[in-house]
Amino acid sequence: LDHKSKQNLELHIIMGAKQPKPDVELRSIASIATNIGSLALAPDLSFIAVGGFARIYILDSDSYKVKQELTLRFHFQVQQIYIEKDMSAMWTLTIKELVKWDLKSYSKMKEIHLKEYPMQSMHPMGDQVLIASEAHAWMYNLLDRQKSTQVVLNDVEDARFSHKCDEQMIISTGYKFDVRVYASNTGFAEHVFEGHKEAIQTVDINYNYTILASGSADGTAKLWDLTKTDNHMLQSLKAHDQGVAGVKFVVFPDRIITTSLNGWIKIWNLENYEVLQTLKVVNEKFANIRQIQVTPDGSRAFFACWHNRTIYSHRIGTPKSYLICMRYFKLNGLLGKLRNSLFRDLFSFDSEWRKIAGIKATEDVEPIVAVDEED
Predict the structure, then answer these.
(1) Counting Cβ atoms within 10 Å, is residue 333 exposed (0-12), middle (13-18) or buried (19+)?
(2) Which of 190, 244, 262, 290 has the fewest Cβ atoms nearer than 10 Å?
């Protein structure tokens, strides 16, 4: 935080509670009737959304049983699910259809049939949604149902996978074995990362948008520095012999998860790039694990296997790790002489956060506060 600034400042309140040891193996929690193409966690962790073939399954987060089944008009695989932060709506994308669902009634609010398909990914932005296909991307206005004239990926013709990270960046990978980072307001590539020897199958970006990870069929996961302009590679991880199917950053503590095309999962320490844990989908020779979701506090990961139509859960952590919860507060002007007692008053471990953190109702939790008045 800039203590000299007079503008609004955003303060991150970080809380800590000791976390149990990680699970020894994967735990199968649910199976659905079709191959799994997408997976999403509700922001409040009240349910899990699973995208199958022309179906979306809503699983209860406590029992992991299907409490709602939604049907699409066209028989295509659900490629992406996006749940809005205020829990008012959910978006689903197939190669031809974009649907907005009301999460209270589970009815369709908007249904858009896309002429330019196959679609790869989307990211809602208010009254507009960014849609990426195999060759280009554009903004789609939900009010007048018209495409924007802005061509975002204007120098990419062979992009096979596109991923929207935030309002500023679009990640595109293609058969040229490179990763390109575009600014959505200009449409030109600001980074071109080269180094993979085979097609790139997955990408992810860390929470503060400084590191990009890419996983390739060559068996490596590479970490790229987004803060520099020289397209610098931080590290190359020799992850899986059968190719990397998925990569996912874990916020606290700094970890990265890689998955393979044959059921192997590895959890890496980003401080020394060592493998902390190796997991395997039992009795599955061909287990393509492309879908990875991690809870906001970094305590648990969920994996979806395409072949056996199963969802797995795994508790992440080490005896030295801490479970982190964050809330955001706007402060006007200078920080002033804030004291720890004020921080304790700002944050309350209510029932909602106790459930997320796994803290018992009778357990007393003190915040971990480290604030230097000079910062």
Answers:
(1) exposed
(2) 190
